[in-house]
Design goal:
Chain A: It is a multi-pass membrane protein. Chain A: Residues 15-227 form the Cytochrome b/b6 N-terminal region profile domain. The complex is a heterotrimer of chains A (430), B (188) and C (282). Chain A has 430 residues and is mainly α. Chain A has helices at residues 14-22, 25-33, 49-70, 78-87, 92-119, 128-150, 155-168, 175-183, 190-219, 240-265, 295-303, 313-326, 331-334, 346-367, 374-399, 409-421; strands at residues 38-40, 237-239. Chain A contains 16 helices and two strands. Chain A has a two-stranded antiparallel ribbon with strand order 1-2. In chain A, helix 6 packs antiparallel against helix 9 and helix 11 packs antiparallel against helix 12. Chain B is α+β, with helices and mostly antiparallel strands and 188 residues long. Chain B has two domains: 1-48, no CATH class; 53-187, Rieske Iron-sulfur Protein, CATH 2.102.10.10. Chain B has a three-stranded antiparallel sheet with strand order 1-9-8, with no helix packed on it. The longest helix of chain B is centred in the N-terminal third of the chain and has 31 residues, at 15-45. Chain B is elongated and about 85 Å long. Among the domains of chain C are: 38-84 and 130-244, Orthogonal Bundle (Cytochrome Bc1 Complex, Chain D, domain 2); 245-277. In chain C, strand 1 (110-113) and strand 2 (120-123) form a beta hairpin. In chain C, helix 6 packs antiparallel against helix 8 (227-242). The relative contact order of chain C is 0.15. Classes of the chains: A mainly alpha (430), B alpha+beta (188), C mainly alpha (282).
Chain lengths: 430, 188, 282
């Protein structure tokens, strides 16, 4: 599952040879993220986000296991145990804030990772499976994050649980039984809290498992790169270690600095004040919003305000929200352009940036109160979102005239460095 | 995520170059290691008792209601604590014993506060396997030595709560305490 | 096949959204949404500066102790502080003996069980106790307060946007309903038993102005107890109750970030080193 010129794992120490015979785990690591994995030499910083997402998952699992040591999954005490963790447990405030803000950072790096894939055509053959598994991870993350947000049992926890499970209630006939089944009651209560806690603990490990599949699927064709031109020979690649471990180490440093700034100096900036009020089933907050990473989808949900004949607007909104994520699973077959990287696709590039802006607008509207003009803006933005993936992308693929591609990765790299050095492009020395 | 643990000397020329470059790589990895330790410390510390647990780490006991010959059972750090006022007879019985013949040699005076020999304060935890001995409650079996008796494996303690018979290796533990007044103690 | 299906689905969603937009826009133009009284007259919290403002600000223990005094003499009659324990007062500079005395002399006694009869009873507080609630339960709280339950104050400054300034603004913001308001919204007259306050979300709240006169408490440190001063002090105290670890957090943050800057700098140099031979034009 690698290029023929990949370096081979040859343990020198007898102990390592013995381990390699019995359980070749070091060999697996060597070939997965060590010197045995040849990677295109021209990856830019956008290729850091995969490893950073892994780091974020690790932070979440470690701090999450710690939080679980001090948490009581019971509606009577849940809010209090989280507060007690913040006040009395040694370094408890650090664990709690790291876990809450770690979720945000996980989504930030995953969104950047996804948009990297969208721009550079990483979803295209032969890497469709990598893309599909990535989307599975994304869905699992959303489920995990939603259930985790319910656990502190604040006002937003409670009403978020009620509203989101209420989405299932929009399904005709079976909707209400499904909602009742999900909650284990007629409203969020002890049963809901306990199952959400159980699943919130389980799902991150499922995510970790799918991450392994995601990396496995990636190693079959090997990593993509900013030119989108496939690797042609040894001159196009460098071993993952030490080249990309060093680059990822630097990237991790930047990530941790930004994380520390938020964690230590503005830990509640991305949160909502209402979640510091204990859940009260008798009083709804004036303005229910999910966490910021759900805002674009929340905007799509609320954008449907007019019934479509016998289909109520509420159901349309739910269908559209799920469709907005599910359509990404079809992306490899919607964008049929043979050119992979957006850098060589002028029309695609323009629309890509419109999409980025569109998603930001949707996010803003999703976080705003459900009043005009936000609803109208999100209607237009949501319309573009669907049009972009389902109509515009397939059309661009058909009509666009791409720019000339470099012959190889090495040629592109050398041209770039030559430009930086102010010399004409050199022919590869090899 | 990980820093390079070792760096091959690829593309390096000259002795000086090797040393300087290696130094920076080693320094970077060392810093990552120090950082990892810095992260692990709070992760370990969070499992220590929290502030609310420590706040209950000392207990005040009011002695005024305990008559000679009576004992009360209270709790100290979530474990039973026996507070007993000995009678003259019990004190005499305890003093009569030659400590050198005991499994865990101690005199009653060593197990009580100077001038307050009648106040015997011990943990209610059998030193064998941690059961709660009988004898603090009214009418409970106090064993053949008139102190405490552990029903789990039959350890008998005398009137100074010293082990006399049975499998327990040590006398009942005397916690750290001090008298805050004539009729009150602070344990812990 | 996939692309034809996608096209139809895309057309449906995008088309229906645009129709929804036109319907919404039409009614927006024909019948613009009415402005609400909250929209027009609710005010953002006043600007007020505290010693803990900014990324490196710290609590002023003198002020927190004054704020605690205001809480004790005024707020605690109705509001609970259930996530804070007497022992926590060590964090604002009280010593062990003082905390013991505060706990013992606290007006509201700690709920307990009578050891003789097993009936509910009360006892003096000890440092390990949490501040006892003034009401036995929500029903009692509502009954004693004209059906409005006084909220717990432990987390109040984190449970509102710009919480410290909000508490200060609310306490100093009670006023007569402006004539302008009644002119435009004649139905919005403050109901009997409520009190107008533009800093409160729906403008009328059940709490009567708790700080109504200068000198309502007497400060031991000689600070002049004006309404403004007392409001600031209690807002600072409630900021501490909501975030007692603020100073630890900021100190740890400075150390962590300094360390990370150096580590990241080294990581960058190592990265450049390792790539040195690859980043050259042939």
């Amino acid at each position: 599952m690698s290029f023929p010129w990949a370096e081979h794992y040859t343990p020198k120490h007898p102990l390592m040879q013995w381990v390699d015979e019995k359980l070749p785990l070091p060999r697996l690591v060597y070939n997965a993220v060590g010197a045995g994995y040849p990677v295109p030499r021209n990856l830019n910083y956008f290729w850091n986000f995969g490893v950073l997402a892994g780091l974020a998952l690790l932070i979440q699992i470690v701090t999450g296991v710690v939080m679980a040591m001090h948490y009581g999954a019971n509606t009577l005490v849940a809010f209090g145990t989280v507060e007690q963790t913040m006040r009395d447990v040694n370094a408890g405030w650090l664990m709690r804030y790291a876990h809450a803000n770690g979720a945000s950072f996980f989504f930030i790096v995953v969104y950047l990772h996804i948009f990297r894939g969208l721009y550079f055509g990483s979803y295209k053959a032969p890497r469709e499976m990598v893309w599909l598994l990535g989307l599975v991870i994304f869905l699992l993350m959303m489920a995990t994050a939603f259930m985790g947000y319910v656990l502190p049992w604040g006002q937003m926890s409670y009403w978020g649980a009620k509203v989101i499970t209420g989405l299932f209630g929009a399904i005709p006939v079976v909707g209400e039984p499904i909602q009742t089944w999900l909650l284990g009651g007629f409203a969020p209560g002890n049963a809901s809290l306990n199952r959400f806690f159980s699943l919130h603990f389980l799902l991150p490990f499922v995510i970790a498992a799918v991450v392994i599949l995601h990396i496995w699927a990636l190693h079959i064709p090997g990593s993509s790169n900013p030119t989108g031109v496939e690797v042609k020979g040894p001159q196009d690649t460098v071993p993952f270690h030490p080249y990309y471990t060093a680059k990822d180490g630097f990237g991790a440093g930047i990530f941790l600095i930004l994380f520390a700034i938020l964690l230590f100096f503005a830990p509640n900036y991305l949160g909502h004040p209402d979640n510091y009020i204990e859940a009260n089933p008798l009083s709804t907050p004036a303005h229910i919003v999910p966490e910021w990473y759900f805002w674009p989808f929340y905007a799509i949900l609320r954008a449907f305000t007019v019934d479509f004949f016998f289909v109520p607007a509420k159901l349309l909104g739910v269908l559209a929200m799920f469709a907005s994520i599910l359509l990404l699973f079809f992306l490899p077959w919607l964008d049929t352009s043979p050119v992979r990287s957006g850098s060589y696709r002028p029309t695609f590039k323009t629309f890509f940036w419109i999409l980025v802006l569109d998603v930001l607008i949707l996010g803003y509207c999703g976080g705003a109160p459900a009043e005009e003009p936000y609803v109208m803006i999100s209607q237009v933005a949501a319309a573009y979102y669907f049009a972009h993936f389902l109509i515009i992308l397939p059309m661009i693929a058909r009509f666009e005239k791409p720019l000339p591609l470099p012959n190889s990765i090495t040629e592109a790299v050398l041209a770039k460095y030559a430009k930086a050095d102010g010399e004409p492009a050199a022919v590869p020395a090899e | 995520m990980a820093n390079s643990e070792q760096v091959d000397g690829q593309g390096l020329s000259g002795e000086d170059g090797v040393r300087r470059r290696d130094f920076i790589n080693v320094a970077a990895v060392s810093f990552a290691g120090v950082g990892a330790v810095g992260v692990v410390l709070p992760l370990i510390d969070q499992m220590n008792p929290s502030a609310d647990v420590l706040a209950l780490a000392s207990t005040e006991v009011d002695l005024s209601a305990i008559q000679p010959g009576q004992a009360i059972k209270t709790t100290f750090r979530s474990q039973p604590l026996f507070v007993r006022q000995l009678t003259e007879k019990e004190i005499a019985e305890a003093d009569k014993v030659d400590p050198s013949t005991l499994r865990d040699p101690q005199t009653l005076a060593e197990r009580t506060v100077d001038g307050k020999k009648q106040w015997l304060i011990t943990m209610g935890v059998c030193t064998h396997l941690g059961c709660v001995p009988l004898g603090a409650g009214e009418g409970e079996n106090r064993g053949e030595f008139g102190g405490y008796f552990c029903p789990c494996h039959g350890s008998s303690y005398d009137t100074a709560a010293r082990i006399r018979k049975g499998p327990a290796p040590k006398n009942l533990e005397v916690p750290k305490y001090s008298f805050t007044s004539d009729t009150a103690i602070l344990v812990g | 096949m996939v692309r034809i299906g996608a096209f139809l689905v895309g057309l449906f969603f995008a088309g229906w959204l645009l129709i929804s937009f036109l319907v919404g826009a039409y009614s927006y133009v024909v019948e613009p949404p009415a402005k609400t009284v909250e929209h027009e007259f609710h005010l953002a919290p006043k600007h007020v500066s505290f010693s803990f403002d900014g990324p490196l600000g710290r609590y002023d223990n003198q002020q927190l102790q004054r704020g605690f005094q205001v809480f004790k003499e005024v707020c605690s009659a109705c509001h609970s502080l259930k996530f804070v324990a007497f022992r926590d007062l060590a964090g604002i500079g009280y010593n062990e003996a003082e905390i013991k005395a505060i706990a013992k002399n606290w007006t509201i006694k700690t709920p307990s069980v009578d050891p003789a009869t097993g009936e509910a009873s009360t006892r003096d507080g000890i440092p390990a106790d949490y501040f006892p609630s003034p009401f036995a339960n929500n029903v009692a709280a509502a009954a004693a307060n004209n059906n409005a339950i006084p909220p717990d104050l432990s987390l109040m400054t984190k449970a509102r946007h710009h919480g410290s300034a909000y508490v200060y603004s609310l306490l100093t913001g009670f006023q007569e309903q402006p004539a302008e308001l009644l002119k435009h919204f004649p139905d919005a007259k403050t109901p009997e038993g409520l009190h107008f306050n533009p800093y409160f979300a729906n403008l009328n709240l059940a709490m009567a102005p708790p700080l109504s006169a200068d000198g309502q408490v007497t400060y031991g440190d000689g600070t002049k107890p004006t309404i403004d001063q007392m409001s600031q002090d209690v807002a600072a105290f409630l900021t501490w109750t909501a975030e007692p670890k603020l100073e630890n957090r900021r100190r740890a943050g400075v150390a962590t970030i300094l360390f990370l800057l150096i580590a990241t700098g080294l990581a960058y140099m190592a990265y450049q080193n390792i790539w040195a031979d690859k980043k050259k034009a042939a």
